[in-house]
Amino acid sequence: MKKEFTEDQLVYIRDVFAHECDRYIDSGERDMAHEALDIVNVVQSKYECEEYADLESFMLDESGTYYYIEKRELEESEEEAVRLMIQFAKSSEQDPSEELKEAVNEHLGLIHANRGKTKLDVIMNRKVNINRLIVLCINSCEESELIRLDDIADLLAENI
């Protein structure tokens, strides 16, 4: 007798992997996030729900449901930080500009990412949100350019 998952089990699997995808995005593990998203999309397609095109569409989905995707618009500060991050990634600059640091700091301040009990907590919270900004650069950057952004993430997080 062939065993198959029930609908409830598949929905549970999707929810677990969606949570894992978020966790991987937060920790900057984009390859693992892609793997988790692939599993989410398998369940999505089985139930004729809209699939996520990429990590960005997954991260920006504000529909509150898996049946359809409603991509939120970027906040102004987020858009500016992403624009400058992409510009840095494509440049030959070794260090992020003051303008980029300021834009990231402004955005992190507006989303209350500078909270934490200790300085390390604050830095880790900032790093999570910088990793989320890097995901917003995915569709404009090559893998090597994303790696350049990964390389400055700690510096940006510590620039309080």
Descriptors:
2 domains, mainly alpha, 64% helix, 160 residues
Describe the structure.
This protein is mostly helical and 160 residues long. The chain folds into two domains: 7-59; 76-158, no CATH class. It has seven helices and no strands. It is elongated and about 65 Å long. The termini are far apart. The model has no long low-confidence stretch (mean pLDDT 96).
Write a brief caption for the model.
The protein is mostly helical and 160 residues long. It is built from 7 helices and no strands. 26% of the residues are buried.
Radius of gyration, in angstroms, nearest whole number: 17 Å
Strand content: under 5%
Overall residue-averaged pLDDT value: 96
What number of domains? 2
Derived from helix and strand composition plus strand pairing, the structural class reads mainly alpha
What percent of the residues sit in helical stretches (DSSP H or I)? 55-70%
Q: How can the largest sheet be summarized?
A: none
**End-to-end gap:** 60 Å
Number of helices: 7
